[in-house]
Structure formats: structure tokens, C-alpha cells
Design brief:
The structure holds two protein chains of two kinds. Chain A is mainly beta. Chain A has no helices and ten strands. The termini of chain A are far apart. Chain B is mainly beta. The chains are: A mainly beta, B mainly beta.
């Protein structure tokens, strides 16, 4: 199954942009790139997903490299509520489910 | 906003007991999932369902079983709980379609077997 590589942790200051990187060098042509986040004591929350083109929604932007071997989740203005574990995810080989890694723990300081 | 509910939120129970973890969603989603997550670790898929009367095993082997008699309900059962079953169990649902459909998660059940 395709795997992703993310930094274990990142730090940010409030109201500054945050760029969370993800490497997925073994991605297949049909794999979507998903981002979820998990706040303490909660289940994961969908953030954004894309296939080839950059994507924007009310929560974040997703920048996908031209060769699709890496992507970056962009939080335009971090808030304290954005402190969470962020998962960059591909699907499993059967295409039936998402494969979660350990994610990046984002800390936000005021 | 997604509405998916899990009960109980916390359960501490002795070895050998039969346990059922409840999961319900009000969005009419066809696909539902159960994940297992140990503290500080990644989520692992243990069961999923495409719809009523459909259940499949996930990527991680589990001694639990599931049923899907109604669209909105996807309970998980452990016939005889053991300490090795101590973990957090997360339920999710999504609209029918490919794995690109966003999954909506409940807040989980933290299970502790003494």
C-alpha cells in the first residue's frame, strides 16, 4: 500500500501561515491525497483532498507537486484551535479505505 | 455538519464480558467503518460496510464482529473482552462511492479491559 512521510511535529505562531509537508513517492495514478486532522480527545476531521490540481476550501489549501510525489497542506492563518495531529493519507491497494500514518503534531503559540 | 454518534464514550470493564460498542449516523450514508487507535498511534481499519447486510474485514485483524441491519447503525461486538482489546475505537461513515468521499468520524469509545 502507498505510504506517506510527514514530520513528527511542527510549531507555528498564531495568525501566521502554516505549511505542512507530505511525501508520497510511491503514489499511484489513481490515488487521491487526503488530509484529516485530529484534535485531542476527538475523532479525525476531514480537511481537504485532491488528485492532481491544487484545491482550496474554507479550512485550508492543498498544493500538489506536478509529479504528485509530494503535497503541502496550507493553513492560511493559524489559530489556537488548529493545534492538532494532521494526517496526510492515501488509500489502500484495494481502494476501500484510507491508510493513516502517525501524522504531524502541530503546535500553535499565541 | 456531520452527525455520527458513538456510545459509550468511555468503558471500563472486566475480562470475559461481552461488549457492544454503538455507532449511529443520521446522514443516510451507505458506507461505514470501524477503526482502532492506540494512544499516540495511527488508526487501523478493522471493519467496514458498503450498506445493509454488507460487512468486510479491514486491514488489521480483529477479534471483534460487526453487523449492519439498518443503514444508520453499525455496532461492534466483542464476545469475550481481554486486556489486549484495550484501545480507542472510532466509527466513521461516508457517502457511497470511491475512497475519495470524505469520511465523517465519531468521537470514539475509549475501552479499557481490566
Amino acid at each position: 500500500d502507498a505510504k506517506t512521510t510527514q514530520p513528527n511535529s511542527m510549531e507555528s505562531n498564531e495568525e501566521e501561515p502554516v505549511h505542512l509537508p507530505c511525501n508520497h513517492s510511491t503514489i499511484s495514478g489513481t490515488d487521491y491525497i487526503h488530509w484529516y486532522r485530529q484534535l485531542p480527545s476527538q475523532g479525525p476531521e476531514y480537511v481537504i483532498h485532491g488528485l492532481t490540481s491544487n484545491v482550496n476550501n474554507r479550512m485550508a489549501s492543498l498544493a500538489i507537486a506536478e509529479d504528485r510525489k509530494s503535497s503541502t497542506l496550507i493553513l492560511h492563518r493559524a489559530t489556537l484551535r488548529d493545534a492538532a495531529v494532521y494526517y496526510c493519507i492515501l488509500s489502500n491497494q484495494a481502494g476501500t479505505a484510507l491508510i493513516f500514518g502517525k501524522g504531524t503534531t502541530l503546535s500553535v503559540s499565541s | 455538519e456531520a452527525d455520527i454518534y458513538q456510545t459509550p464514550r468511555y468503558l471500563v470493564i472486566g475480562t470475559g464480558k461481552k461488549i457492544t460498542l454503538e455507532c449511529s449516523q443520521t446522514m443516510g450514508h451507505d458506507k461505514m467503518y470501524w477503526y482502532q487507535q492506540d494512544p499516540g498511534m495511527e488508526l487501523h481499519l478493522i471493519h467496514y460496510s458498503y450498506g445493509v447486510n454488507s460487512t468486510e474485514k479491514g486491514d488489521l485483524s480483529s477479534e471483534s464482529t460487526v453487523s449492519r441491519i439498518r443503514t444508520e447503525h453499525f455496532p461492534l461486538t466483542l464476545e469475550s473482552a481481554r486486556p489486549s482489546h484495550t484501545s480507542q475505537y472510532l466509527c466513521a461513515s461516508s457517502e457511497y462511492g470511491g475512497v475519495d468521499q470524505p469520511q465523517h468520524f465519531g468521537d470514539g469509545t475509549r475501552l479499557s479491559i481490566l
